[in-house]
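seq:
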Amino acid sequence: MCNLYRMDRAGSEVAKLFGTIGAAPTANVPAEIYPGYPGLVVAGGELRSMVWGFPLAMKSKRTGALLKPRPVNNTRSDKLDSFMWRYSFAERRCLIPITEFAEAEGPAGAKTRSWFTLPDQAIFAAAGIWRETDEWGSAYSMVMTEADGVVATVHDRMPVLLHQDDWRRWTDGSVEEARGLCTPYRGAMAIRRTDELWTARRNAP
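struct:
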């Protein structure tokens, strides 16, 4: 599953590529996006800032008291009909601009970040769904499918990456059209292995 990605291009550049209306968001969106953090999303023809992850209520196993919600940032494509996802999938699909996404690789306790990019696209789009929440306002989740190609050497799942010709079909097409796009990406993809510890997340903004 994807728990870290980068979007390090200016909002104005993203807005131009996706042909969105209105001004690009001025909110403080970090270049590295983690679950529970804000990221840029194209929804309803607008470039918006939303929180990555649908809030899931948590309770203490010891006391039963409500805890801070957990952001559920990935949506399995084979679970889109479940109660948590089905209304958002049917009514509120979005595009998630990305410059690269990461997966953890290596032995437990020493996992490092491996980054994936599309060599022919400086900015590309992952399939997403979104909804309004009481906890965080607008929130989105990234749709995941079976991994293929270089991603499959690291993880068994990957984001649903959309070719530009399919952007409108994902956002505005029928449920069945959108479901048909939930397949492994077939275009060129590159991997960049690093010695950055996966747990470096603690240094995030």
